[in-house]
Amino acid sequence: MKYFLISILILCSILKIQAQNDTFTLEELEEKSKKSSRKEADKNTVPFSKVGKVPLYPGCDVKGSNIEKKDCMSSKIAQFIEENFDNDMAQNLGLPTGPTRIISVFKINTKGEIVDIRARAEHILLEKEIVRVLNLMPKFTAPGYVEDEPVIVPYSLPVKIMIEEQKDKDESFSYPAHKRCAKIIDNELLKKCTQEKISDFIKLSVNYELADKLFPQDKSTQFKVFFTVDKKGNIKDITAKAHHREMAKEVIRVLKKLPKFKKPAMNNGAPADFKYSYLLTIYF
Question: What is the value of pTM for the model shown?
Answer without folding.
Answer: 0.52
